[in-house]
Inverse folding.
């Protein structure tokens, strides 16, 4: 069973982390839920905390049903003292880290420090960053 967590860093240095979703959270095209996450945030017109919460609610409802079955909170939030996140002790199969702040965000893993630029998504497998995906919507002036 492939597990996964979504993490959103907002512009106020708040980290919003989902509970662990269990089942098919890998990022490939063979029934993996990871591609749904990547596609949504890569193409989403606006990135903000409300949009993240709305996506997580719908993602859970369509794929897992944890909130309706168990009444559990889907997201925990807390403030960061710096724009860094250490994944060297992560034992979840996949982390999807979405940088919604206006600054670079650093992930510390087994493969060193990786910078996630604003409006990008990092895909991490256990303690390693395996891919960085930029936001695809072109900003209009």
């Amino acid at each position: 069973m492939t597990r996964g967590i979504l993490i959103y860093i907002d512009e106020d240095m708040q980290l919003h982390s989902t509970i662990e979703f269990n089942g098919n959270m890998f990022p490939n095209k063979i029934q993996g839920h990871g591609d749904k996450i990547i596609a949504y945030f890569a193409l989403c017109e606006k990135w903000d905390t409300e949009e993240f919460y709305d996506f997580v609610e719908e993602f859970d409802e369509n794929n897992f049903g944890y909130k309706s079955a168990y009444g559990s909170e889907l997201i925990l939030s807390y403030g960061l003292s710096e724009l860094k996140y250490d994944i060297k002790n992560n034992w979840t199969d996949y982390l999807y880290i979405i940088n919604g702040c206006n600054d670079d965000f650093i992930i510390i893993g087994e493969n060193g420090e990786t910078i996630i630029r604003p409006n990008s998504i990092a895909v991490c497998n256990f303690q390693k960053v395996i891919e960085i995906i930029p936001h695809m919507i072109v900003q209009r002036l």
Observations:
- The longest strand covers residues 3-9.
